[in-house]
Amino acid sequence: MLNVNHIRLPAEAIEGQLSYDSGMAALPEPSLILSFEEARHMVESHASGLHPRGKELLELLEALGYVLAEPVLADRNFPPFPRAMRDGYAVQAADLCQLPARLEVIGEIKAGAAQDDIHALTQGQAVAIMTGAPAPPAADAVVMVEHTSRTGDQVQVMKAVRTGENIVPAGSEAKRGERLLSPGLRLDYAGIAVAASAGRSRLLVYRKPQVAILATGDEIVDIDVPPAAHQIRNSNTYSLAAQVQAAGGDPVLLPIAPDEPERLRELIAEGFEADLLLLAGGVSMGKYDLVEQVLAEFQAEFFFTSVQIQPGKPIVFGRIPSDRGRPSSEAVVPDHIYFFGLPGNPVSTMVTFELFARPLLEALTGATPQNLIFLNARLKSEIKIKSGLKRFLPATLSGEFEHAEVELTQWHGSGDVVSIARANCYVVLPPDRDRIPAGEWLPVLMR
Ligand code: AMP
Ligand code: MG
Known about the structure:
- The protein is 18% helix and 28% strand.
- It is an alpha/beta fold.
- It has a six-stranded mixed β-sheet with strand order 8-5-7-6-10-9, with no helix packed on it.
- Helix 2 packs parallel to helix 7 (346-365) and helix 4 packs parallel to helix 7.
- It is elongated.
């Protein structure tokens, strides 16, 4: 872990160009520049020490998108009876050695048939059976109706079946008492289906972490204010809030902070009331980029202040000590509150959230850590670039069936919020290539 031991005053403050005096605050080392992989591992290692903040019991459908805080156990065998997988005839496979085979149909079992209605079966006999119905005990296979022809109480079978074919044995999916879902699972529709199958109308989940979002910049105005010609509407607060929600957090939207230390300090202090603070803007090298200086006043430890990627190079990750009350059995009280200072350009804000802030937030939700997964797609048309930085550029994944193709979205740099809305992924370009020909396989991060 990188730790900052040296105290350095910002050049601007020393020169007295700013009315702001950073006092005794420790500014991060200028050398806290990491590669993409180092920065990601840095965040992941901090994330592994985090815990969610308590639990709550929710109705099944309300629990969608929350992280499970208890195991879900099978209350019965899955399936509870040997289940026919096809419409057809329950048979003894040994009766079908010679084809066509002629069997006597002794009855019918439909889905929902109770135990008493299930006909016993002996050699040379068959029972008409429907998908989802319980297979009779003596039957060891179901032959599909497509391979039979029926005349009165006789059925002619044209195709043999293996023992066990088209019957799911009782308890083969899960035995009674077995764990179906584990704590740490983010509940999606499949998890909801399993909980429903186990009769769980309520689930114990982790409370969603509160994530404060603080946009900064004198030029930024909120969306319900008519902007003057020189002003920019605040999109970052809203894109981040949407990303936080999608990742399982509860966004807390703070007012826009001006590029002025007093008010910035107040709002940062407010932000640290949450479980995680995301700042956007004010982390570049400009004279009025004050975020790091003000964070330093909160006894911040900085783990990195720049990552060799584009967009999103000036990204800051750190934490401050927390003194939030005493631990209780209900919730783990954190000893630090983490923050990210994300760059203000809207595309950079979005990309850096996904690459770095998301794993930390997911840890606070209680979710089991996931690796960042890249797909591969063929490049549709040649790319010529040179940046010396690993690039995550807005791109469009298309193509039919298994022929995935990726193409850069036309864009005007990391401020171009319009072009990213047209993209559906980020294509990853290595730092050391100036030409990538069409047809080459490239890693793609889905959005
Ligand atoms: P900064 O990171 O503060 O230097 O800002 C970089 C660029 O992003 C500038 O062009 C800002 O106007 C723009 N920007 C910063 N914050 C926001 C925001 N909340 N919404 C939209 N654009 C922003
Ligand atoms: Mg700014």
